[in-house]
Design a protein that fits this description.
- This protein is 25% helix and 21% strand.
- It is α/β, with parallel strands linked by helices.
- The longest helix is centred in the middle third of the chain and has 23 residues.
- It is globular.
Length: 477
């Protein structure tokens, strides 16, 4: 009888433990301007990315993952809210004089998970508002340490020398603030101080993981590199075959390795959903200080694939296939609803544009939940539409990096071209080189109808459509 009672108690205890199992920890690591081809798993040569290679063996790697827009502020708004950024009025890249900010009424991944009892932290580049109360603590993060915008938005050149030319817009910019919560705790005023940033953000992230290992947590590590100006730390300077850019990728690879190591040491890996990606493609006019778009056309600040197509690793041992590759169309707007499904969190009350990919990540679904992606850029320009493997490029003015690349940290010339309508089959032509619209008029007709739906919903400045369902950003006083 005693043995039977003991067995019952053990079984009951196991059931209770299972029922009380922690929700998965969530970590998002996002690099800045890291191109599709900047690591060995996605085609880079000359830079041994040991930790990205390990991550690839332990993750599913996505090959058709797109940022909602190919620029900083817009992409970050899309990731955190699950919405097209132009729907929220969050376009472009905020500069110090800009007054708009992400509306605090919009729910973020952090505020969504905070309601579920998660400890939340962000370390790195924010770029969604220039002053409090439009900094991370007001969007669901318990802790924040980092910078308000890109680290090239300072009153110095790429070598850290003070700008003295009053005609240079950088002359009017302040030193780069280093923030702790809502306070400015320091200023980054030299390339040497800038070189400490990756290490500082990584150290803070490791500390946060260790301090919260016994409760569910959400960590958003938004590295500001390899965006120019490059500033590898002394530990990595001169260590690669590709100059400062290669050194910077080595340091980023080290940072990812520190997170993986900490999860292993704290025995958290199996209960942690790790998402590693980039905000947009490479800033190609910086030449040897920029990365690789992996053979895709153009780069950052364009609606070609080189601007929006970025790497994505999803690691969740026992839940997501290790060493897998997935070619389904996915966007950074899909991260929020997928995290909601993985954690049981309630989706935002306001409509979002993201799609739940959890069953795709788990290998349970073989059909793509997303068929359509709209390429918006500028203030509200609809520049292209993807439908399955087809991409219809709509007439629009565009940047081009063809004229002249820079060298040694100096930016080259960025040209402007008028792009005509064209249809590309990305299954056979990922470089967008061959217009096949005359061969497939029915496909063009189908995608033009989808474009009209987007214009009615979110508007289109190129065709003077206002859109019925756009929401307003916050405005600084």
């Amino acid at each position: 009888m005693k043995k039977l009672l003991l067995i019952i108690l053990i079984f009951a205890d196991a059931l209770i433990s299972h029922a009380q199992q922690k929700k998965p920890n969530i970590i998002i690591i996002m690099m800045d301007d890291m191109g599709y081809g900047d690591t060995e798993p996605y085609g880079m040569t000359g830079i041994p990315t040991f930790n990205f290679n390990r991550l690839t063996k332990e993750s599913t790697r996505f090959t058709h993952y797109n940022a909602a827009e190919p620029i900083c502020t817009a992409s970050r708004a899309a990731l955190l809210t699950g919405c097209y950024p132009n729907r929220l009025g969050m376009t472009g890249a905020l500069l110090p004089a800009d007054k708009k900010a992400l509306n605090p009424n919009e729910e973020t991944i952090a505020s969504m998970l905070k309601k579920e009892g998660y400890q939340t932290a962000m370390f790195g580049k924010w770029h969604l508002g220039n002053k409090p109360p439009y900094w991370p603590l007001h969007y669901g993060f318990d802790t924040f340490f980092g910078i308000p915008y890109s680290h090239d938005i300072w009153n110095r050149d790429h070598e850290g020398n003070l700008i003295t030319d009053k005609k240079d817009i950088r002359y009017t910019w302040p030193p780069l603030p280093l923030l702790e919560g809502d306070r400015v705790v320091d200023s980054i005023t030299s390339k040497q101080k800038l070189s400490h940033l990756i290490g500082q953000l990584t150290e803070r992230s490791v500390q946060f993981i260790k301090q919260n290992k016994n409760k569910p947590f959400f960590l958003y590590l938004a590295q500001s590199m390899p965006h120019v100006p490059l500033a590898p730390s002394a530990q990595f300077r001169g260590k690669s075959e590709l100059g400062e850019f290669g050194d910077e990728i080595l340091e980023i690879d080290w940072s990812v390795g520190q997170i993986l190591k900490t999860l292993d040491e704290e025995r958290l890996a199996n209960n942690t959903l790790l998402i590693v990606t980039s905000d947009n493609g490479p800033w190609l006019n910086f030449g040897d200080h920029a990365g690789s778009s992996g053979g895709f056309r153009e780069g950052k600040s364009t609606s070609w694939e080189g601007g929006t197509r970025v790497p994505l690793w999803i690691r969740w041992p026992g839940q997501v296939e290790a060493g897998g590759t997935n070619s389904m169309l996915m966007t950074n707007m899909d991260i929020l609803p997928t995290i909601a499904a993985a954690t049981g969190a309630t989706l935002p009350q306001k409509p979002i544009d993201g799609v739940n990919f959890l069953q795709v990540w788990r290998g349970k679904v073989k059909t793509d939940p997303r068929e359509v992606f709209y390429y918006y850029f500028g203030k509200n320009n609809l520049e292209g539409v993807r439908y399955k493997n087809w991409k219809l490029v709509l007439p629009h003015p565009s940047n081009t990096y063809a004229p002249l690349h820079g060298k040694g940290g100096d930016g080259g010339k960025i040209g402007r071209v008028d792009v005509p309508v064209a249809l590309y089959d990305l299954a056979h032509d990922p470089g967008e080189a061959y217009d096949v619209q005359l061969n497939y008029p029915d496909v063009v007709k189908k995608i033009l109808a989808l474009a009209d739906q987007a214009r009615n919903d979110m508007g289109d400045d190129l065709t003077q459509h206002e859109g019925k369902n756009r929401r307003q950003p916050a405005m600084l006083k």
